[in-house]
């Protein structure tokens, strides 16, 4: 890895573990094993480096979610694949956790990739559910936008419950809960549980 | 207010706005308008003061949620009242947001009231849904524990989506989504929408 890549990867790790407010430039330099001069050669400062790190993390999250959502089967199967994909639950969401970071939310440039990623995810799931509705996979009353927001919020809030409990169990319970509620809206024989 | 109360209230505000990691003892003293000597007279340090603040915030959150959940009507009405209660959405949950604070999660004493509050909330909603199931308000397949976890997670994750968007709209959309999914599980004529 180049020095610039090492700085971005170290920042990504620290933002996930400690958030922006809890990460000092010194901690980034130590983890990356580079000197202060190198950092300022490549980046204007902590915010600039954090922006590169958040954009990269957002790309990775989007690609991972898209893979789960692009699988085989109907709309319910694809949302199930997203909900049940393997996760390091106790680490939380590397993008969503930044919303609780006051210095990220106060900075429009840093907030932008966080917003775009979560907004994209809601839109992607809503589109899948809408296609499912059009194919008659769900009863006619299902609202794709509202349901997609509930699905994404359950995952994000599931991390909150899991971290509070120091156990992935409440995340799994919440995800099964929203999945059961969604599955009950399918018409016909539906997928095998 | 006494000096001790002023310190606790200032810490509660700062924890909500900036989290534990982002709040310095100096910021607490400035907001409370008290000197360092006063703080150490009443509290062993920042963690001790934060513990008093988190416990107080947890009590308030529990009382507020309990009021919404103790209203008139059936199980679905009571969960609806909880989901739709007035909230300062963009501030986030003063308890849930602490789960993204690495120094809170790493300290068992600070994590304990966060866990207990969210665990109590899940249990309270699960008990209401279980009673509803026993009275035949929901179809027989509804799982009270899983559904309660999904309800609490939707609220917590709704804050994440709202803060990312700098708008309460995605919170409202997510909450309406989980409420529609729950309402669809009620039997009989059901509550008026």
UniProtKB/TrEMBL annotation, chains A, B:
<dbReference type="Pfam" id="PF16925">
    <property type="entry name" value="TetR_C_13"/>
</dbReference>
<keyword id="KW-0805">Transcription regulation</keyword>
<feature type="DNA-binding region" description="H-T-H motif">
    <location>
        <begin position="24"/>
        <end position="43"/>
    </location>
</feature>
<dbReference type="InterPro" id="IPR036271">
    <property type="entry name" value="Tet_transcr_reg_TetR-rel_C_sf"/>
</dbReference>
<keyword id="KW-0238">DNA-binding</keyword>
<dbReference type="Pfam" id="PF00440">
    <property type="entry name" value="TetR_N"/>
</dbReference>
<protein>
    <submittedName>
        <fullName>TetR family transcriptional regulator</fullName>
    </submittedName>
</protein>
<dbReference type="GO" id="GO:0003677">
    <property type="term" value="F:DNA binding"/>
</dbReference>
<dbReference type="InterPro" id="IPR001647">
    <property type="entry name" value="HTH_TetR"/>
</dbReference>
<feature type="domain" description="HTH tetR-type">
    <location>
        <begin position="1"/>
        <end position="61"/>
    </location>
</feature>
<dbReference type="InterPro" id="IPR011075">
    <property type="entry name" value="TetR_C"/>
</dbReference>
<dbReference type="InterPro" id="IPR009057">
    <property type="entry name" value="Homeodomain-like_sf"/>
</dbReference>
<keyword id="KW-0804">Transcription</keyword>
């Amino acid at each position: 890895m180049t020095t610039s890549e090492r700085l971005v990867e170290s920042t990504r790790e620290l933002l996930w573990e400690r958030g922006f407010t809890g990460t000092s430039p010194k901690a980034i330099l130590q983890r990356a094993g580079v000197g202060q001069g190198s950092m300022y050669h490549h980046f204007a400062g902590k915010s600039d480096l954090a922006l590169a790190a958040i954009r990269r993390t957002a790309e990775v999250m989007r690609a991972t979610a898209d893979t789960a959502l692009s699988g085989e089967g109907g709309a319910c199967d694809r949302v199930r694949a997203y909900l049940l994909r393997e996760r390091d639950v106790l680490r939380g969401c590397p993008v969503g956790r930044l919303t609780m970071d006051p210095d990220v939310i106060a900075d429009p440039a840093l907030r932008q990739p966080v917003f775009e990623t979560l907004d994209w995810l809601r839109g992607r799931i809503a589109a899948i559910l809408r296609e499912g509705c059009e194919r008659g996979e769900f009863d006619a009353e299902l609202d794709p936008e509202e349901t997609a927001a509930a699905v994404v919020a359950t995952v994000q809030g599931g991390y909150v419950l899991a971290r509070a409990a120091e156990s992935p169990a409440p995340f799994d319970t919440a995800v099964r809960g929203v999945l059961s509620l969604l599955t009950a809206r399918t018409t016909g024989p539906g997928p095998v549980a």
